[in-house]
Amino acid sequence: MPLHPSHQPEARLALPAVIALAALLPLVLLAPLSTPFSGTASYLPLHMALETLAIAVTALIFGVVWSLRRERMPYNALLLACAFLGVGLLDFSHMLSYAGMPDFVTPSSPEKAIQFWLSARLLGALALLAIALPRDTRNVAWPAWAVLSTVLALVAALHALFFIYPQALPRTFVTGEGLTAFKIGFEYALIALNLIAAALLFHRMRQPRSFNASGLFAAVCTIAMSEFFFTRYGGVTDAYNLAGHVYKVLAYAFLYRAVFVEAVQRPYTLLHDSRRQLAATLDALPDLLLVMDAQGRYLEVHAARADELAMPTAQLRGRTVHETLPAKAADTVLAAIAQAHEHGSSHGKVIELALEAERKAWFELSVARKAAQPGEDEHFIIISRNITDRQETEQALRKLSLVVEQSPISLVITDLHARIEYVNAAFTRTSGYSANEAVGQNPRILQSGRTPASTYQAMWAQLTQGKPWQGEMINRNKAGQEYFESVLIYPVRNSEGQVTHYLAHKEDITEKKRTAARIQQLSRHDQLTGLPNRSLLHEHFRHATASGQTLAALWIDLDNFKDVNDSLGHSIGDMLLLEMTRRLRSSLQTQDILSRHAGDDFIALLPASSQHAAAALAEELLATLSQPVQLAGQEVSCTASIGIALYPTDAEAFEALLHQAETAMYRVKEDGRNSYCFFTAAMQERSARILALGHALKQAQQRGELHLVYQPQMSLTNDSIVGAEALLRWNSPQWGAVSPGEFIPIAESNGLIVGIGEWVLRSVLAQLRAWLDQGLPPITVAVNLSAVQFNQPDLPEFVGRLLEEAGVPPSCLELELTEAMAMKNPEAAAQQMRELNQRGIRLSIDDFGTGYSSLSYLKRFCIHKLKIDQSFVRDIGSDADDQAIATAIVQLAHSMGLSTIAEGVETAEQLACLRYRGCDEIQGYYFSRPLPPAQFEQFVRARMGAPVQA
């Protein structure tokens, strides 16, 4: 970890000095023990000089710090000064007790001098260690006099001990033998204390500066080296003793420098830096900074932009505002000064000035009263901020409000704190709040409490990042009525790219919501009977099986119902269905769920039902349904075939369970109708066929058994061919022509659909390229995507690559997705569709209206066309519900800018009904059966009136 930058300037001086002294230490150790000053009498003057110099440095350290003790000095500086005053006094006694000096109270001797020496070194080492310790281990600071008194008392006690009881102390020096083991050990203990202090100080040098740790580090290291010499000498006048004293004087010099830098030099440096920083701040201040007296006289002027001043700075000083500003502006300045005089400050007053070239500028004044010293006049600090841009922005906003006032969509402009600055007339019509009532308010005045908090959180998460947000809210107008709004909010940026306002487009979609709710109802319930449809039945199934209880599924099919429709008409058939629905419902328990699956098929789910209970209910239902019913004056009898499957015995999945029940129902049909049976293992023959088909399908593509046919699609606008749907066919040598409804689910379940789907796409694009090369006009070919294909993350890139390889325009390809596929994972589906749409590929929703439609997601899907399912087309000429659904789908699509196509159109009546309801395109047997590529080309050319090419 490197040194902290705040220590580096001082460390660059201290560390090299320590290194240099450490490098000299081996040289001294190798020097001869004798010196030119050998002998006590010769060495004594040099010793006195060195000690006097050291004592003088300690006195300077104490004097510098003690004179500044009332300033904000670090506590460790006072501790260091007082401790080293004691060290200096002990060193003075050591000097007077040195061998060869006159008696100092008691006879002078090497041992007496060493005793004073060791006590001085110990006091210094402990003081430096205390300073180096972390702050949280130091006691609370004492008053200066207490620290000084403690140190002087300790020094006095040591003198008394050394003068009165020297015999109580261990021997430190023996003449003729040299230093004792105690003396050497004590010196090593002092070295250890100093090295610990050095380590702590070096650690402090890695932290932000609180005192001159670098200088103290150099001093402690030098003291440790000095003490090392005092472990080596054999005589009090040898070279080691002399080197130890020299190193001690250098260490004290480092201490003095550290104290001088901390107490004198550093405060002046900080003061100089502070003045430079203040000057730089004033120079960089974008606003005008003025100092005036109570009469508005300019005393000081700081201006980053001279062009905002009425005259040059030198001419302003000493003048009053009435001499330099227009009367109105001068009065405003004096009023602000008066307000600051009374209340301490003034804010918000604005003056208008005409600068060069008759350019107007507005300045906002902030005035603060400056505390005056006794006998001085009161002064005021004034900050004049140029708010011209803000004023011009407000004017631009007012102009913008005039431009958008006639917009039929509510427009709201707010500032960054969501305070309303503008609303148009459409907002007033929708919300009931006038502009005067809304401006200055927060849009939360419209909150109904029904919009989820997560909606607002998501909105602000986007806006605070500078991104637009779009969503829906449930608001309440002034009259208390709730309404739905589609809201688009995006940030408004200035020329520098900074967000200054938010603009909200708000559209009342209440009526659209009601229409969507009606469509939702149509998509989840059977319109004739009001029973749940298949998707809603699936939800009931999940709820009923969530606890793991058993369940029976009854597939109820009315026998020969088609005969009733054909002989008596669909209206009588509808009446019969309603009566059968009533009878079924009355025979079921409250917890049982009844659904109309399609036509004359009903499904009943019996939660917590056993095989015996299901059989008993089936017998009851057969008896109830077979009772004659009077319809339009005629007696009609109707029986039923019921297939029963048990959960989880026969199947655990919803679709599988219904399939087993349907399989059992067909067995009843085969056995003569008007009965019931349970699904059995014998019915697995169908599963065996599926397994065999799956195995054969794996080889079908390689063997060329798969081929494509194309069913033309006609525009009802001009009766022209606009496209085709590519349909996959399988002619198996073993099974013959296998229905796509049979082999495609098998391909999806065993993983073959991806490879087959890729082959279909490549074949379609190759055929499109061939048709284009043969002069056929561009048409759009629709290809059905399976759920597995659509969920592949690289689908957009893959399709784009195929288009590029084939050289086919993206607009010639349309991908069909089922409604259930898109709604399985709406967020992922929307992203997938968006990427495909960005590549120019057209998208359509197949079988629209047969599944669970979420219009809130539908509007986010990048689709071009809705395909009306043939179940709504089949009876559209006579079924009012089918007519309503088809009409609703067409209107919904057109309102969203989408086109519609109806499939399964087989009669002129169906075609006329669809044309009347505004359907855009059709396909079906009435127009053309699916055709092989060559026949399709002939069909198109025939419709074009062009000669058919070979």
UniProtKB/TrEMBL annotation:
Domain PAC span(s) in chain numbering: 467-521
Organism domain of life: Bacteria
The EAL domain, residue ranges: 690-944
Record-annotated PAS domain positions: 274-344, 396-442
PROSITE patterns for this protein: EAL, GGDEF, PAC, PAS
Membrane spanning stretches: 46-68, 75-94, 114-133, 145-165, 185-203, 210-230
InterPro entries in the record: Biofilm_reg_signaling, EAL_dom, EAL_sf, GGDEF_dom, MASE3, Nucleotide_cyclase, PAC, PAS
The protein's name: PAS domain S-box-containing protein/diguanylate cyclase (GGDEF) domain-containing protein
Originating species: Paenacidovorax caeni
